[in-house]
Amino acid sequence: MAADDNPMKKAPSPVDRHVGNRVRMRRITVGMSQEKLGEALGVTFQQIQKYEKGSNRISASRMQNIAQTLGVPVSFFFDGAPRDESLGMAVGFAEGQQADYAADIFATPEGVALARAFASIQDPKVRRRVVDLVTTLVEGQKRD
Fold this sequence. Notes:
Elements: H1 14-29, H2 34-41, H3 45-53, H4 60-70, H5 93-105, H6 109-119, H7 124-143
């Protein structure tokens, strides 16, 4: 039986997937490869892949190292994370959608390229015009 066929293997929790997506998003935003992040942390790029997929949980000390390496506070990785409904802390519909958008953007090569290009724009007025352009394009699609 292959490891993936193990019926006892648990699927990654929504929080582990969210944290992994945020690690991936930040790593890509700063232009760092999985290999380089792995080297900085003393792990293989395969381990970074597992962290980013949420299939391996990230320990607190490793999370601190990742945050320092990527130049963000640890809280960055939990921004917009789903909450445990069994504890009475359900996330509102809009918050869940917002977190999904970020993960969706970084799941495609076009999204990564767009995010990198957008992040390199220095002028806030130009950034605003880009957002307006994309909004106009989306609205045009809705009418078609």
